[in-house]
Amino acid sequence: MLESYVSPLLMSYVNRYIKNLKPSDLQLSLWGGDVVLSKLDLRLDVLEQELKLPFTFLSGHIHELRIHVPWTKLSSEPVVVTINTMECILKLRDGATVSVKPTL
Q1: Number of structural domains, the chain?
Q2: Considering the entire predicted model, what is its pTM?
Q3: Which residues, listed in sequence order, are joined to residue 91 by a DSSP beta bridge?
């Protein structure tokens, strides 16, 4: 019963940043408490809007995304999301400048 509330909530967060993710991809695996998704493409427009960097994202991928939901201890333990290797290719925006401060 709790799954019917938590799964759509997780899906809304994950789907915001990941392209072409189907609800069935997440729900079937989450029933056991763990889900592993591989070779995911990031929504570059969302990353640019939220991070507000002086860069344009040319590509972005997550090689592995793990989500652990402790169903029996959900009120006392956190849901853990682990990203294993995220790769992004960025380009400095036209007209943007970046200052680099030397470190000692």
Answers
A1: 1
A2: 0.76
A3: 56
